[in-house]
Amino acid sequence: MMLRHKGVLAEEEGSALMTDAPADVSTLTFEVALAELEKIVARLEQGQAPLEESIEIYRRGEMLKARCDELLRRAEARVETITVGADGAATGVRPLDPE
């Protein structure tokens, strides 16, 4: 049985699925958001959740995915590549081209 808890779902049996998770995903770290997203995917793949619950956790999953994407874009923007001259010595850094 699923219960509402702090704006998200929590399983009555005490599973770690989304318990005590903040309703606002904007403060979550990448690792926390990804872990919760993985739990949501597993729950949905089981196909055991009622329709309304499935819709609600799917929406939560979309928010978590967007948060993970945002944090990855920020991380990519901070990564730099060391440039090397013809003699093999480091000459500086430039932003990493993600593609």
From TrEMBL:
Domain of life: Bacteria
Keyword Hydrolase: yes
GO cellular component: cytosol; exodeoxyribonuclease VII complex
Reactions this protein catalyses: Exonucleolytic cleavage in either 5'- to 3'- or 3'- to 5'-direction to yield nucleoside 5'-phosphates
InterPro entries attached to this UniProt entry: Exonuc_VII_S, Exonuc_VII_ssu_sf
GO molecular function ontology, one term from the record: exodeoxyribonuclease VII activity
Broad EC category: hydrolase
Function, as annotated: Bidirectionally degrades single-stranded DNA into large acid-insoluble oligonucleotides, which are then degraded further into small acid-soluble oligonucleotides.
Quaternary data: Heterooligomer composed of large and small subunits.
Descriptive protein name: Exodeoxyribonuclease 7 small subunit
Origin species: Hansschlegelia plantiphila
Gene of this entry: xseB
